[in-house]
Amino acid sequence: xxxxxxxxxxxxxxxxxxxxxxxxxxxxxxxxxxxxxxxxxxxxxxxxxxxxxxxxxxxxxxxxxxxxxxxxxxxxxxxxxxxxxxxxxxxxxxxxxxxxxxxxxxxxxxxxxxxxxxxxxxxxxxxxxxxxxxxxxxxxxxxxxxxxxxxxxxxxxxxxxxxxxxxxxxxxxxxxxxxxxxxxxxxxxxxxxxxxxxxxxxxxxxxxxxxxxxxxxxxxxxxxxxxxxxxx
Length: 232
Fold this sequence. Notes:
The chain is of the alpha+beta class. It contains four helices and twelve strands.
């Protein structure tokens, strides 16, 4: 089926080197932390890259590769990833560029016949962007810098400097005084999929909490009430 993939794709790089993999995978290790962050940020598909396969402690060993990927796959499954549909596993050596652009030679690694990293990324279907949908951006952070600043990733629509928007759930009208992308220079507008920072007028920093949503006044996000029922 030639459908547009609506999932976000991330690349999780782990080390196959003896000792490094174990350190990253232990409780509190960066491998676990990065995987959990990816899931909570909406990355629903992962390309798991097992790097440093050329290391003297590994030497393209299929046994070592399976040892690393088996444990990690079980952990990712516990986070909610489906190993059959959400995970792509591959070995490579970044330092020698083996497996990045061109496929890993079978003479070097006869047990892997899959694509290279760039080949895998090139074959990913494009993400559908809701450019024409009403504007919506969950607020990820807030701070003060010559006024009230907020930042987040635009999930739908577009935003323009000097435009008026609605902040939910406090239902405050907000004007965009300055808009920034990934640089320090101001930009006139931004669209869905972009990470932005903005200086706003109409609401103070102390009245904003991460998780609030900036949206189009013509299509406010719905508010719900949550009732917590504790067992007797």
